[in-house]
Design a protein that fits this description.
- The protein is mainly α.
- The chain has one domain.
- Helices cover 74% and strands 0% of the residues.
- The protein has 2 helices and no strands.
- The termini are far apart.
């Protein structure tokens, strides 16, 4: 007599981001969700521009120090 085949299911554990988005979808309307996402993207872009500006400033200061 053979044992019945065992079915194994692999269920992925949701990522933290996915879980937060699911909670966000339950708690907020589409407009609020879009506004929050747009605001966060704006924050990330501001950080990126600030980083680029700081790097450019360092390069300009290094060039100025080398020529003086």
């Amino acid at each position: 007599m053979q044992a019945a085949p065992v079915q194994v299911r692999a269920t992925a554990i949701p990522s933290l981001t996915g879980a937060l988005r699911a909670v966000e979808a339950l708690l907020m309307s589409n407009g609020q969700r879009t506004a929050r996402r747009n605001a966060w993207n704006a924050v990330l872009e501001d950080r990126s521009r600030a980083r680029a500006r700081a790097e450019a400033e360092q390069v300009l200061e290094a060039v100025a120090a080398r020529t003086s």
